[in-house]
Automatic annotation (TrEMBL):
Its EC number is 1.1.1.262. It holds the Pfam family PdxA. This is 4-hydroxythreonine-4-phosphate dehydrogenase PdxA. It comes from the Bacteria. GO terms for molecular function: 4-hydroxythreonine-4-phosphate dehydrogenase activity; metal ion binding; NAD binding. Keywords: Metal-binding, NAD, Oxidoreductase. It is an enzyme of class 1 (oxidoreductase). The keyword NAD applies. The gene is pdxA. InterPro entries: PdxA_fam (IPR005255).
Amino acid sequence: MNKEDKPIVGITMGDPASIGPEIAVKALLNPTIYEICNPVLVGDAGVFRDIATRLNLNVIINPITSVPNAKFELGTIDVYDLANVDLANLKFGEISAMAGEAAFASVKTVIDLALADEVDATVTGPINKKSINEAGHHFAGHTEIYAQFTNTKKYGMLLVEDQLKVIHVSTHVSLRQACDLVKKDRILEVVDLLYNGLISLGETNLKIGIAGLNPHAGDSGLFGTEDDEEILPAVEEAKRRGYDVEGPVPADTLFSKAATGYYGGVVAMYHDQGHIPFKLTGFKWNADKKQMDSVKGVNITMGLPIIRTSVDHGTAFEIAGKGVASPDAMILAIESAVQLSKYRKKNLQAV
């Protein structure tokens, strides 16, 4: 495939004090990435050069100030250079306003590049929410940043790892607030977002499982009324709209079936209900080494006018700069971004 035929993928640095720069550079050492896309990192070129030097990675960092100047060649990593990190004051594993500002700037820049059609898709590295907030940007996470700067009102977090695909009714809110957000209309919104996500990813199993909120899905009102009063009516309406849905299914049953591919995707009612089974599937902890052997999983923000995928893990401050971080999730996030880009391009050509 010629360079001109491949999607341009903008990849953010993440928090410079985290494993973000490391996994980005490691991912772009994989020849497969350059076979499927034209990747460009967005952040501080000095940070990427420093991590490559520290880890003895055989790569050239090529700072650029515009995407057309990128070389897109294996062995040379193009960096849309924001030059906004003072390496003398950067410490791995530490929260700081400087790191938060640099991380935020890389996200805002890649959004702007995508909105201007200079990149075809965006991929984000891990950020530290406290550092972002200390820099004066009061967001709960990437999803909310993207929603604001793309003026998106209806969106959802879709997690993808092998056969398990999970979208959430709510994410970064308290558990008490999450219960209040379980509403029929919102559930129908995320069913639609999930269905579109499955289609975009090329999935053929479109059966959707919808989790209950309460133990035993409320057990006919014995353990709460939300399942009967909000979730069940949403399921019935989704069926009337032509979706193949099942629910509310008690979560402890739903996810064991979903992990085997019984459902093409599932709707979780709140953050941890979806994240815990997802990470049990994709994250492999090595008890002897006291570190992750592999961290797999992709986070896709559905409903945006641009493509955004991300690693579904945090900053891992405890291992930042040590050279042991796995790029698996970043590679998967890039691959998913390419798949979504191809689907979008195909649809645009059909119009």
